[in-house]
Amino acid sequence: MMNFSLASLLVLLLCYAASTTDGQIVIDPWTTQLSNAPYPQQYVLVGETIVFIWPEGEEQNVWIYPSRVCFDDTDRRFVGSVPGVNYTFTEGDGSPTGNTLLFTSDVDDNCVNGGMRLRVTVYSDTDTLPPFVTPPTSSPPVSSPTVDVTISPSSSPTDSVVTEETAAPTEVPTTVSATDAPTETPVAPTLPPVAPTLAPTTTPPVATPMPTSVPTELAATEDPTFALTVVPTTTTATKNITLRGLEMELFGINQFGRTTQESWMTTTASYSTLYVQQQFGGIVSMFETIYTVTDSTIIVTQAPGKRQVRRNLQQQDISGDSVKITYTQTLIYDTSDPAITSNFLAEDPFDTEENRVAYVNYLRNNANNLPLSRVVGSTAVTVASPGAPSVSPPTPEPTMAPFLPPSPTQNGNDDNESFLSLPAIIGIACGGGALLILFIIYCLYCRSGGLGKNSKKDAKSTSTPPMTVSVNRDDEVSTLHDLKHMNGHGGDQSIATVDYDYSKAYGGGDNSVSSAGGTLGDRTNNFSAIDPSHAAATGATLGPFDDDASFENHYRAPGSNVKEEVLHVFAPPGKLGVVIDTPDNGAPIVHAVKETSAIYGRVRVGDKLVAVDDEDCRTMTAVKVSKLISRKSANPSRKLTIVRTTTVD
């Protein structure tokens, strides 16, 4: 029995040495797995080497993640990025009971979705052999080891092994001369053959027709025959669950572009992973999570009517309160506790105020993103209302009616939004009407020149209650102030925003061309190519824009000498970033120009827009002019004809 144990151990050692040839483990090829299945786990000793090989030209690398989690790169170590890179395990990598390391690649998402996850358990005690499996043999086992084979078969059995080599063969046969007498008698044969093996065993006994003995009858007992185990042995399968329609709101942020979204997804996934590992590390294993943003809504708070707010809007600096994020979360984990569900793991990291404060601090310190560094709070995770669209619908076309916050039914969130009470609606309407009357009186005084500095100061200090505007990420419309009816009748809005924010894609303002089409000459207030007194015929009347010095220049005291110039500005394709206004049914004028606009510096605030590609637009509203310019956004170039009024000293 002792000989059998020693022989078995010798065979196992030989098999183990064969599986790690020259102390090396070769992973070939080290590349992505279509099934996302990880590589088989390996078991090594300290001092052994692992080699990674992949096809030439393929971008891959090798990293060691001591955390054994794809999303946790704490203390990770770089091995190499060249095919054939190797790593030799040190004493710090192993332990007597085995220490597991994760080898992976950080190219794209190969660790999470490419199956490039190789776990290697390293042992530092040479007496502790890693588990391995020996290949089965085709012949049955024998009671003792086999004898060593001879170097070459002999003509007859001998007691000793022949170790001397025979003579080398010659190129020609050896000739022996014939003799007259025969040679001596042949040499006697060697020892007789070795005795044969043991005689075969006896034939198997013939089966009896019935059992040799009847079963023993035992009385039933109340207690089981064998004692129960302490803990039932259970095996669990790794869960892979995707939750859709989750929502979270971040406060203190007014931007959520593509870069910010990617930073939020990565940082939030890292926070959730660390939270689960710290709180449920003993009952949840193999935890990984992926966040994917499906929609976002920026909630903006404005206070129109004030000088500073209008100037900020003119520069397109819209401030916001919060952003509501709708996302999908994929969770991969293993647990035997039925209380740990996917919904629990998705909501618990943000369930309490303490957890949310920790999340906000983690987001601000680790996101490496300017908008996310301004986050001041967050809500708990909620599930979106059933039937809510995955993408927010476009906002309706602006009308001349006073702006009211969108009703809850427009977004399909009847349960999560609150309606305005009737007194609140009446108060808002009365306040808007009063402000509209004050604005009209102010315009009349500006035209007549009878408004003093004190009156201007009082008019500018008038403000309206702040209103909350919900702007979806796909909408880029600036509402400069409350819309008003024209001459008591409804119509298109007087202010519209020509699409913007695409100037960088077309090389900035260098691609636009400005040329002077002519000068109308010097004039006094009683002569103009677009005279306010001929507004009914030409539609070219400027309204009051006292918030900007360039506007105030148009309303100097009577007697100032001014001249008008006709300029042609050639704009590149794409969005322009220009705000158009048509005050008092007059000709369209430029109300604001974004600094990143392609025509910034060539078009000024107060310029009158009289034609687009030689199409007369003096009688068009701001909305129609914006639509006209947008329809021509795909043209290689657009010709904007403007009239600029300057003061002659």
From TrEMBL:
Species name: Nitzschia inconspicua
Domain PDZ positions: 574-646
Record-annotated membrane-spanning stretches: 419-445
Q: Where is the composition biased (Low complexity)?
A: 144-188
> Where does the record place Pro residues bias?
132-143
What this protein is called in its record is PDZ domain-containing protein
- The ranges of region (Disordered) come to 132-193
Q: Which UniProt keywords apply?
A: Membrane, Signal, Transmembrane, Transmembrane helix
> Where would one find the signal peptide in this protein?
1-23
Q: Has keyword Thylakoid?
A: no
Q: Which InterPro entries does the UniProt record give?
A: PDZ
